[in-house]
Amino acid sequence: MNHPSLKRVLVGVWVAVLALTARGEPVAAAAECDLVVYGGTAAGVTASTQASRMGLRVVLIEPSRHIGGLSSGGLGATDIGNKQAIGGLAREFYRRVKQFYDRPDAWIHQTPDSYNNPRHTPGDDAMWTFEPHVAERIFREMLQEAGVETILGERLRRPDGVIKENARIREIVMESGRCFAAKIFIDATYEGDLMAAAGVTCRIGRESETEYGENLNGNRPSLAVHHQLMPGVDPWVVPGDPSSGLLPGIENAGPGEEGAGDHRVQAYNLRLCFTDAPQNRLPIEKPKHYNERDYELLFRNFEAGEKKVPWNLVPMPNRKTDINNNLGVSTDLIGGSWNWAEADYAEREQIYRRHLDYIHGLIWTLANHPRVPGKIRKTVKPWGLCRDEFTDNGGWPHQLYVREARRMVSDVVMTQHHCQGKERVDDPVGLAAYTIDSHHVRRYVDEHGHARNEGDVQVGGFPPYPISWRSIRPRREECVNLLVPVCLSATHIAYGSIRMEPVFMVLGQSAATAAAIAARSGDQPVVQDISYETLRNRLLEDGQILEWTP
Predict the structure, then answer these.
(1) Does the residue 253 lie in any domain?
(2) What is the Cα–Cα distance from 442 to 264, expressed in whole angstroms?
(3) Amino acid 28: pLDDT
(4) Is 39 among the domain residues?
(5) Is there a contact between 471 and 412 (Cβ–Cβ < 8 Å)?
(6) Residue 341 domain flag
(7) Which member of 236, 371, 390, 403 has the lowest number of beta carbons within 10 Å of its beta carbon?
(8) Structural domain tally of the chain?
(9) Helix, strand, or coil here: 150?
């Protein structure tokens, strides 16, 4: 046996065999390719498509049964900041959306003229709002056209499913025992599971103000003015009686130290696709395990003076919606997200189910409960689940809105200073263009004995800014053949601006381009060694936008 490549493959397989047989589990021979993309999010789709178009043998592995992540999971109202900052495959996706809705047969429950597209600019070559099943259809078409092998329903074995040799990933092992070997790996998950299992440094939660000199990071009760509870809302089970205990989701910790770091991440929810078209509408029935106490804070917030419907409803085509959190008590399950990143799969299913149960109960309550103002009940009542969306999940989104989980710590950490233009990177692989945006992370009892939300930060007023190539690759000593376009290296507060689906698509394409360049360098590629100028030139050739010109 004199062929060095064959020796390396057999060594990697033997390591995997030892690891699996030590547990008495079945062993599958490793499937080999140039690139494995783990995570079929929108970023995973663009990464896989780009790499395949550049001639790599690509395998895309998605743990669930659906492709597209949040973009096909209910988030049809694209958060973008500035459309002109989006190029490449990301813009190709949104152009395909427009091409789909340019067809008369795409409009079933309304006419195109009757659709008031809130994010459309006349003459735009793309469309930025869409139905979930349309997004998934387009993503699947892109993968099929590129010839990407797509494997659904395979989950990484955690925490020991990454087989490394020094700083190089040899292969990854699924819970089923299937193994996948490749030259390069991309972690395109919202959680960073592959990154973490590979031993790459990452963090969860908010940095302190002092760590990077960010005056928006850390615990920020003084900034929490948006999506806030009405003044004077009592937090105790029996109003005015602390001995009765707190209502669900409230901690008796006080406002805390301004700017202090902690383990908390911003709240998650489900992006709801509802309809008021009678022929397509599924009614919202009362949940089987409904607990009225879960909505006592909602009732008290109305009684304290809240007059608005606590949701943000954006129209989608065919009389559908993308509904997001709004006001003091809404679809965000504040405090329910903290354990998600490190949770095992069974616990994640429980966390997802808890979010779904909470939102299900919330919508039923808003439409039916006598303690909800009549005007609000009348507004909510006509809406229901869509018969033609999420048909394998009863009409409810299958994707939890994981706004933030793990974040890599690499050679460049994107911070508030990059967002606001006080610092600028010289190796861009894409632009971010959204306001610094964090949802609330907790509820607490303030010094007056009232319930308050904390964690929301909304600061804008800056132009699109570049994201560093070094922020989507690990440190050399930790891993030489992994790229991380979603859980990239950024602080909590900077991630709140970067974390938008179009940006993830841009970074997925850029990561794949880097992977293709590295893969051509030989059997032992090192992503940190590729020429940035070579990468830049190819990104520009493929339509990526790397510099902002007003």
Answers:
(1) no
(2) 8
(3) 58
(4) yes
(5) yes
(6) no
(7) 371
(8) 1
(9) strand
